[in-house]
UniProtKB/TrEMBL annotation:
The keyword NAD is annotated on this UniProt entry: no
InterPro entries: AAA+_ATPase, ABC_transporter-like_ATP-bd, ABC_transporter-like_CS, P-loop_NTPase
UniProt keyword terms in alphabetical order: ATP-binding, Nucleotide-binding
SUPFAM superfamilies assigned: P-loop containing nucleoside triphosphate hydrolases
CDD domains assigned to the protein according to its UniProt record, in alphabetical order: ABC_DR_subfamily_A
Descriptive protein name: ABC transporter ATP-binding protein
UniProt domain ABC transporter: residue ranges: 18-244
One GO MF term attached to the UniProt entry: ATP binding
Superkingdom, natural source: Bacteria
Keyword hit for Signal: no
Pfam families, A to Z: ABC_tran (PF00005)
Amino acid sequence: MGIDATLAAARETELPALSAHALLKSFDGREVLKRLDWEVPAGRVVGLLGCNGAGKTTLLRCLLGLSPLDAGNIEVLGEPMDEPRGQRLHRIGYVPQSFDLFPWMRIGDFLTFTAAFYKRWDSALVERLLGEWQLDRKKKIAALSQGQRQMLAIVRALAPDPDLLVLDEPVASLDPIARRDFLATLIPLMRRPGKTVIFSTHITTDLERVEADIALLRSGRIALQRPLADLRAHFRRAWLSREGGFSMAPALDGALDVDLVEARAAYVVDLADVRMQPALKALAAREGATLELAALDLEDLFVALA
């Protein structure tokens, strides 16, 4: 590789895989994306988490140019994404929530047909995944279950060796055992060097298995983006207890969530904020209460913040 090509490759790895600024999208007068900003670093696996109806699918479709924006700017792999076209599409893999294309085709014919559109196609990977996921090349797509169709969609998305892989609820249609086994195969493929993955789901245990960075979509914006290890290290539920209990949880500046549970005051807090520990201790002293800190799993955090 020449010096210019090496420098170009280095610059590309420094660019975010995806950058979105002030995205606005409405349906029937209801704003779904509200001046949303988001940046996804290259080479990361990012879990997009949000309640049903939060707009995860809408956001992903807008990011890939599949749904028009009302306003805002998007760059994907260093280029403006105004519509899906050009050589960049060879570098993007996408798995939608449902896969209903070409029901009359057999699996093998569908994959052969699809391969003709891509510069890169990993036939060995295709054969391995078809075998591991028990997808018969001779079977018609119409005869597949919804879960099997999703598996086929993922095979199609992975085969061109994309630099950006976007998965929209890829395993929601599988039962828990099948989902666990499926992710065990998928995770190493998602974590290949230099690849970026956006994994949308509302199933928090899937993101914990993937060890993804977490991006929380709430009220039309990315409300939180942190590595999962960072969330585990710093987010806690703080309990205040005292004799006679509380009739109302005292206010705590900086708390992410406040609740009253069986006369105990409960707060979700981020201990990465250096002010939080002293504020909790001062509040406990002022209220004549004892303070306990408990770890939060991702589901607890999601329920508190979503």
